[in-house]
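The following block was generated as part of the benchmark described in Methods. Ligand: hypoxanthine.
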Amino acid sequence: MNKVYEKVVLAYESIKDRIPFEPKVALVLGSGLGNYADSMKVVSEIDYKDIKDFPISTVVGHAGKFIFGYVKDVPVVCMKGRVHYYEGYSISDVVLPTRLMKMMGAKILFLTNASGGLRKDFNAGDFMMLNDHISVFAPNPLIGPNIEELGTRFPDMTTVYDKDLQDVIRKAAKDNNIDLKEGVYAQLTGPSFESPAEITLLSRLGVDAVGMSTVCEAIAANHMGMKICCISCICNLAAGISPNPLTHEEVFEAGQKAAPLFEKLVTESIINM
Ligand code: HPA
């Protein structure tokens, strides 16, 4: 068996008896947004450390567990904490949790993240729904022998972010008077934030928000035929646009401040998916 796939299968087998239901939605919570599960009807939890060879986050603010619960009547598996490529994990380990949640039965991948905003009309605390992404600054998680069990060698990327899910999120924002921006997100490796010159470059390439996650997970999920959507919390204005130096604490705090509205937007969206 393909070695990368075998690792996903072994991880799945190590916890399969503890998975309480087939989740409809797999929800990934970004920096500072991790308390979302407090608003779910929680059924059970699995610590990442109990899963065979599972990559565990080393970042402050990224505790690690799967939380299974209901958002109204929708069964959701929630990832509280994710690993990032900059932590030193291989890119296939970074997307292992995504593949594992598909194996649990999730059809929809709802990604969230914290990002830096590049546009003049963005403010810290804004939400941006992804219409598309730029992956060329981070390694592609599909490099290596193709996992035939999961998908095709050369996946189409024309519509990674599902149009119907985008409509659901737009409507949820409108119904709740939440200002929702839309745009293109680029994943860079981090862990250093970008330089002002890099932000100028990204701006000219059509990037609206920049971060250190998400795109690799979306590529892996698209490969497996999942329906994908993503909302980014613009936690700061990107380097050179913001007059201040950037810190992780600032990003984390902005995420926490935006959390109540974010929870509302995510809940209202999931209920209608
Ligand atoms: N750059 C990259 N990643 C980020 C940022 C940023 O400005 N803010 C939050 N995550």
